[in-house]
Structure formats: C-alpha cells, structure tokens
C-alpha cells in the first residue's frame, strides 16, 4: 500500500480581502494531485468548488462566493489527504446597496466588458471564457523557436481557439517535458470539464424553472387575450394598449438612464484618452525629457530616445503625433547646434572631440563634423604659435599662458628622453632666477615646443581616428557613417598633408626667425623676425636649443608622421648644429687665444704648470667634437655610447694628444713628453679602464647569466638524458649574442674587437667551468652532451681565447668523466662537425680573415 498523503494546508491567499466573486489565488501544501483529487473548497464557510481551478499541488485559483461570515478560513478537502487546515483567513467585504441612478466609484473590468446596448443580439466571445490551462497539468514550455514551429506546421497554430488549431503544436509548445501519465491525466481532465459544462447548463435550467413557468403563464394569458380581442390594431384593442404600454416603458427607461448612459459614454471617452496618453507618454514627454537631459549633459540618453521616437513616429500620419514629433525635431536641431559649437571650441581634449563627433554622427548632423573639428584645430594651433612669438616680442618673459596650462615644459618633458637616448641632458637644474637669466629666444623656443608637443599629437590622433572610422559608435557603423568617413578621409588626404606641412613650416620659420634670421627670405623677416634687439646666443644656449628642437622632432616622429613632412625640421636641426659648431669653434678660438695670458710658468710637483689643468675643456671638446671621430649620439643605447666614447678615447690617446705634442715641439715648447705621459696614462688610461669595464659588465653578464637557465631548461638532468643529437639551443643563443657584440664593436672600431671579445669569452668560459664543477654526477649520455657543448663553444671562439679562458675550458672538461668508448668519440666528432657545418656562416665573423676595415 502506498503511504497516505498529508492533509492539505493553506498558507497564503491573495488578495486577503474583497467583495463577493473576487478572484483569489490560494497557495499552500498538499492541495491535491490533480483536479479530480480536489473534492472540497470553502472560503468563509461558502462552497467555492464550482469556481475552483486546480493549478498545481501548491496553487488553486477560484472566486469567493457570497458567504454569510465576514471573515473565515480557507478549507481545502482532497481525496488523498482528507480535510485540510489553514493558517490564514479571508475578509469578505459587504458593499453598500445603491440605487440604479446613484453615482459610485465602481471598477469596471474592461478585459471582459461588453456593451450590451450595441451587442444585444450577440453572444459573449468564447475567447473571454477560455481557461489558461485547459489540460489541467503543469505547463512545461519548450525551447523550440517559433520560426521552426511555423516551418514544421505550415498554416497551423498552437492557439486552441484558432480555426487552424494543431494539437501537436500545442503539446510541443506547452507540454514538451510532460510524461505519458501526465498526458493521460490531462485527457481525463478534458472529459471531466466537458461533463461539468453539460451538468452546469442543466443545473442552470433546473434552478430557473419557476421563472420559466411564470413567463410561460404570462405569455399564455397574453396570447388568450389577443385571440379573444383579435390581432387587428384597433383603437382600444389589447394590441394597441400593449404597444402603448411598451412605448411608454421604453421612453421612461430612456429618460431615466439618459444621464447615466451619457456619463458612461463620457467616462469611456476619458478612459480612451488616458489610455492613449499612457500608451504614448514616451512621445508626449520626450520634448521635456530632451531639454532636461541636455541640461544634465546626458547626450547618450537624448540620442537613444530620439532614435526610438524616429523609428516609431518618423513616418506617422496622425496629426497629434506629427505635431509632437515636430517639436522633438526642433529640440534635436538645437542640440546639433550646441554640440557643434562645443566641438569647435578651443582648447578641448581629444576625448571630448571624439565624443562630440560621435554624438553629431548619431544625430545625423549635416556636413562632416569630424573634418570641421580638424580644420578648426589646425587654425587654432597656427594662431597659438603666432601668439607665442608676438607676446614674447612685445611683452617679454612668460607672456604665453595656454589657458592656465600646468603641464611640464618641453625641456622638462625631454629631460628623461635626452638622458635615456643621448646620455643625459645638457641643461642643469634651473635656479629661481631662470626667467631673468635665460635669453628670451630660448624661452620662446621652449614655449613654442610646448605648443607643438602639446597640441600636434592630439591633432594627428584625431586625423587617424577619422581615417580608420573609430570616431563612430555602433549606431554609426550600422548607418554607414564609418564607410562614409573613410571615403571622405581618402579624398582629404592631400588637404591634411598640407595642414601638417603648414604647421611644421611655421614652426621652423618661427625658430629660424629667433635663432637663424639670416636664413629667412627678406619678405618673411617682418612676419617671423623681430628679434634684432635681443641678446645674441652663445654656443651653450644653442646646444640647449638643439636639444629642444630634437625632442620636438622625436615626439612627432613617435606619432609615425611621414618623414617627408618632418624633413624641414631635420634640415633645421642640421643648420642649428652647423651654426652651434661654428659658434663653439669661434668661442674656443678666443679662449685658446687667451690661454697664453694665463700662463704663470710655475712648475708644480708633477712637472706641469697650471695651464694644463685649464686644458680639461679642450679634452672634453676633442672627445665629442674631433673633426675625424665625431659621431652623432642619436638613437644609441648606453652600451653603444660607452663603446663610442671608448673608441674616441683611444683615438685621442693615439692621435690628438700626439698631434698637440708635435705642435708644441714644433713651436719650441719643451717638456711635451711629460705632458703627454700625464695626459695619457694618468687621465685617459683610467678613463679607458673604467669605460672598458663598464661595457664588458653590461655585455658579458647577460650572456653568462643566460647559460645556467638555458642548460637546465625543460628540467634537463645530466644524470638522466638521451643520447646527444647535437648542440642545444642555449649554446647557439649564447654564440649569437657574442656575434651581436662582435658586430657592435666591429662597427665602431675593429681595433677594439680582440680586446672586447677576449673578455666576453673569458667571462663565458669561467661561467661554463663553474656550472660543470657544480654538477654532482653525470650519466654516460650527460657527460657526452656536456663535452660536446664545451668543445663546440671552445672551438667556435678559439680566435679570442686567452690564458684564463683556456684554463677555464680545461677545468670544465676535467670535471667531466672521460670517454673510453671509440663509438662515443666518433659520435662526438660527428656532432662537432655537424655543428660547425650548420653554423659556418654565423661563425665566419670569428675568423681573423673576416676582420676588414669599415668605411666611415
């Protein structure tokens, strides 16, 4: 036997109060296994089983009847659980009786409302009486798309009230997961509903029998009187009197209910108007919402609402909608003008420019807002550059203040760049009196660079965004704005190129007017010149100007602006360098001429006079500006700079000071040998040693440090490894790094190659020796692999082996087990030959014959 079910328990009812015939939802536990299991339902003591609709074991829907009790419990009775209990109660409201003509606030259920005056001869539509769940079992909605159902059942419908109803469609759509037993229960429920409907009709007839009999008797009496009086319409006959009575009753009824029906018609009209306002309140409220959102700056909300209104009412023919939509278009046109004004305002950030362009694109603004913004920015930057020059000439120091711009100056931003890319800035920390000590031309060039570096990058990025279409949103992409933008950009490439050329030309001409006025045509001096009465610049200030202009050029080059557009700046840099060199040579010549006057002919303990100490400036000059060895330090790494300076020191040691000594001897100056020895051995040897050690440390440490991770990459174990098949990649990578150093040194000075490479090889050999001596034990294959790699490395760099590196390789090989098998020795020789053959081209640089002089 199956275990008895628990009695029903009602735990909730919604609503908790109401008048008779209020529809309520009852929730609880164990409310039955199906419609057939529900045998009793009472609310406030009234039987509501007739109106009950069982939904599930925890939900029942019914209507409250006219119970006698004002408040009572909800009792559910089932076959399986018996009489239930309730933890909640329902309060029955008793409405006051009113006359047929009294006004009252009555809620009309418009869903099932029918105007019986206009449809007296029509029956109520069965759609209003259809049950939400005709099968009486739990609904399990399927996940099959509607389009697939329409393709599977063409011309059919899953709506059971449709003429083309398909039961298969309905079951798939609403009961895809129902079991066969549940479907059998659903069939039983359908049969019971049909039986209940027939029984209900019969019960309705039985309950109204007395009314039917009274109507039958009245009609029979009227019929008898008509037969006795005749059916003719004679004055005073029964027919005439009956017609008069019915007409008077109809007139009286129309008189009584005329006001009531008029109020109802007015209420219906008001209700329909409110429904229209409620349904289309989005459109009616849109003008005010647009105004509010514009004031708050929520332009995205305005655009989204406008797109929605345009899709819904853009082509409407309803007069009231057209009138409201016209007001919306007026507000949107005002917004377009406002956004365009904000877009063309200067200064503005790149982010704001892109945002306003996207807004105008989404609002379908006429013209091309992006190009208008680019054109306005171009004119503004040109004017800024002119204002910078005019205000410095007319007012003086610190005249230009870019709208309170607090960004660091061009020199401040370039201090790190020059220190990283050129070995340090030539400008020291500014004192508090900088503005009063620095020439105005220098301040002008720096401020002008601030303008260019601060504004031109954003100007270029705006153009790039315009070209690739990234200015527009998804809405713009769908509407074809992106393709339109790219097409416009292709057509305006030459115009933009002319804009960049105009900006760079103006920059160059303004700097020429301040620093190189002689290079400008006579007709442009009045426009770009005006610095005739300013202080002439010395070589130190010109060097600083070169740094500023070079930093400006680098900032523009980093934007990937074509080199042909920046060529004028490169030409300016070249002329500035030449001018700076000329000025430096002129000043140096004057200084050298004055050295003779400072000689006191007093010899110190080292055998030199104080004049030699003052020659330090000459040494610095020759290191970087020697006529034959001068190399621009542009774009070199720190290691390359060390190498260049090291080479310059060697050249200075071997040529310059010897030439100076020869000139001294030629002019009869004695003691040149001692001066040469002090200069070379005391100063330059020490400097040479420090530079050489710094370079070796920077190049050798990474190569040696990569050996250990490379050896043990992939959890390699010397005690458990495969038979060697060749040299592993870490060793090849180390050789490639050594080759890279060789190429770097050889490019600068072939004389340094043996010195540098021997030290690099010594460091690598020492590290290999240490790594081999740290291994506790080797397998046979591990020993063969290690010997192969050590021999391959030693043979590859044999040209640059010295005593220390030879000793390190020997110790490394001694740490390995000896090879006793002839097969192992043969395999070792074959693998070594294979390695040398595969890397023959790479290892060619290590051969002495490959060292050829480099043309400079």
| SS-based class | mainly alpha
Low-confidence region ranges: 108-129, 396-436, 601-609, 615-635, 850-856
Specify the biggest β-sheet.
Answer: 6 strands, mixed
Termini separation comes to 109 Å
Strand content: 5-15%
Which word captures the global form? elongated
The mean pLDDT is 75
Counted by DSSP, the helix tally is: 30
State the total count of DSSP E strands.
Answer: 11
Helix share bin? 55-70%
Q: What Rg do the Cα atoms give? A: 51 Å
* Assembly of the depicted chains: single chain
Show the helix and strand layout:
Elements: E1 9-14, E2 17-18, E3 23-29, E4 38-43, E5 46-47, E6 53-56, E7 59-63, E8 71-78, E9 82-83, E10 85-86, E11 89-92, H1 146-152, H2 167-174, H3 180-207, H4 209-229, H5 238-279, H6 281-296, H7 299-313, H8 319-344, H9 350-362, H10 369-394, H11 410-421, H12 434-437, H13 440-468, H14 474-478, H15 481-491, H16 493-515, H17 522-528, H18 539-557, H19 563-598, H20 610-614, H21 616-625, H22 638-666, H23 672-705, H24 707-711, H25 729-748, H26 753-773, H27 780-796, H28 803-814, H29 822-838, H30 840-843
Parallel strand pairs: 1-10, 2-11
Antiparallel strand pairs: 1-3, 3-7, 4-5, 4-8, 6-7, 8-9, 8-11
Helix pairs in contact: 6-7, 6-8, 7-8, 8-9, 10-13, 10-16, 11-18, 13-15, 13-16, 13-18, 16-19, 18-19, 22-23, 23-26, 25-26, 26-28, 27-28, 27-29
What does this molecule look like?
By secondary structure, this protein is mostly helical. Among the domains are: 9-92, Immunoglobulins (Immunoglobulin-like); 133-178, no CATH class; 241-344, no CATH class; 366-397 and 437-597, no CATH class; 689-845, Methane Monooxygenase Hydroxylase, Chain G, domain 1. Strands 2, 4, 5, 8, 9 and 11 form a six-stranded mixed beta sheet that branches. The chain has a five-stranded mixed beta sheet with strand order 6-7-3-1-10, with no helix packed on it. The termini are far apart. The model is unreliable at 108-129, 396-436, 601-609, 615-635 and 850-856 (pLDDT under 50).
